[in-house]
Design goal:
globular, mainly alpha, 128 residues
């Protein structure tokens, strides 16, 4: 039970930090465990001016920590995110020019994720 509470608190901290940074908040602290090699990347609404439902936290498929991957997958609504974190990490590194995540898709196909789950996993990740 404590792990679940801590995981939710950690996720909330990352989301709050990301929101503060996205809003241009002063003196925003980096996400825990974030380094130059493992950034948490935020996407922003497109240039069309259409409002986004919420900022999406993306994690580097190659460099993010397990906690960063889990937070990004949970934010994307991936069911059983902790299981998919293990699979994403297992098949690293991914080619930086493979923006369609073909390598990751082929590896995850072994586990028969639903199309929705696969889409959510890929939407939560970035390269490099």
């Amino acid at each position: 039970m404590e792990n679940v509470v801590m995981r939710h608190l950690f996720t909330a901290l990352i989301v709050a930090t990301a929101a503060l940074v996205a809003c241009g908040g002063a003196a925003a602290a980096p996400a825990p465990n974030a380094t130059a090699a493992s950034p948490v990347v935020l996407s922003t609404p497109g240039a069309t001016g259409a409002p986004a439902a919420a900022s999406t936290t993306k994690a580097s498929a190659n460099n993010a920590t397990a906690a960063q991957l889990q937070a990004a997958l949970e934010a994307a609504g991936v069911p059983n995110a902790s299981r998919w974190v293990i699979e994403v990490q297992e098949y690293r590194p991914y080619p930086n020019d493979d923006l369609s995540f073909a390598k990751l898709k082929s590896q995850l196909a072994k586990y028969n994720p639903s199309a929705d789950t696969l889409s959510r996993i890929l939407a939560a990740l970035s390269l490099p």
